[in-house]
Design a protein that fits this description.
about 280 residues; alpha+beta; four-stranded antiparallel beta sheet; DNA-binding
DNA sequence: CTGAGCACCTGAGGGC
DNA sequence: TGCCCTCAGGTGCTCA
């Protein structure tokens, strides 16, 4: 499920459940995610001091000068109600609730890192700017990360001959733009996903920057309502997908001009676009 | 440095 | 019913 909007809404849902709470037990499945999950039983009695985010990494600051870094991969969720134990790889229990990392495909990640070394950890050190300035970026032990600007997008694409769509998904350039929102942002900006990145004009860089930011902001607003279903048992999966203009809509009419939406593959990932609106 | 390809893993859905 | 194929929201590695 997770692109940046879902990681962000997950964080917002978990914050009131975990922040300031003492962990009563931390259990792991013993199965490896992208990397082996460390033993975490010794975190019982430790307090979660704050929740933060960098790119799609959730960062749980702990009272023992360590940070629990979590990533949801392709299929991960953090939920108070995991569907089954088979794919529940980590559970953080407090006096009042339990939050589980549920991840069938196991592309996720759980690492315990010394907080002072967080910003220099290889996973985080090379990341590009954040698309949005959000409260979740603050409270990190280091300075808040830079925020995407059109100037950065323009400058950083000058040396890239690869198509703009896979380039947008490169976290060295900008973090948090996944496969769905790369297609959606390019549609909104009217830019062909196959345009070589270095051919992006300054004007297009400005437009694209704005549309990335608006698309993600809209998705966070909508994702809040769909993701709540994962942490609260009451709801069904939200109508999250109804906001997509092109993603998953192959052969359906473009919402602007009615032309059938085209599907292609770039860097082994599905791309959706309007052949008329994105010249 | 860039860019292309592959790898990790499980489950859902379509065609036969 | 079952088998086989393709596809899925991410990221990091290798090799040219």
């Amino acid at each position: 499920m997770p692109e940046l909007p879902e990681v962000e809404t997950t964080l917002r849902a978990l914050k009131p459940l975990l922040e300031g709470q003492t962990l009563t037990a931390v259990t792991t499945s013993g199965k490896a995610l992208r990397q082996p999950v460390p033993q975490l039983g010794h975190l019982a009695g430790i307090r979660v001091t704050h929740l933060a985010r960098r790119a799609k990494y959730l960062l749980l600051g702990l009272s023992n000068q360590h940070t629990l870094l979590l990533h949801l991969g392709m299929s991960g969720r953090l939920t108070t109600h995991p569907p089954d134990a088979k794919h529940t790889h980590l559970t953080l229990a407090t006096a009042t609730t339990g939050v589980s990392l549920y991840d069938p495909r196991r592309f996720g990640l759980a690492l315990l890192l010394p907080t002072p070394q967080l910003s220099t950890h290889p996973l985080l050190a090379g990341l590009g700017p954040e698309p949005l300035d959000l409260p979740s970026l603050h409270g990190l032990p280091s300075q808040p990360p830079p925020i995407l600007t059109a100037s950065h997008l323009y400058a950083a694409t000058r040396s890239r001959t690869t198509a703009i769509k896979p380039t947008l998904m490169d976290a060295k350039l900008v973090v948090g733009v996944g496969n769905i929102y790369a297609s959606e942002s390019l549609f909104r900006a009217g830019i062909n996903p196959t345009l070589p990145a270095h051919k992006l004009t300054r004007k297009q860089a400005e437009s694209l920057t704005g549309h990335i930011q608006h698309t993600l902001t809209d998705a966070i607003t909508a994702g809040g309502s769909s993701l709540r279903d994962y942490t609260h048992p009451s709801g069904q999966l939200g109508n999250f997908q109804s906001m997509f203009n092109v993603y998953g809509r192959k052969d359906q009419p473009c919402p602007h001009c009615g032309t059938p939406i085209a599907h292609s593959v770039q860097a082994q990932r599905s791309t959706f676009s309007c052949p008329t609106c994105q010249k």
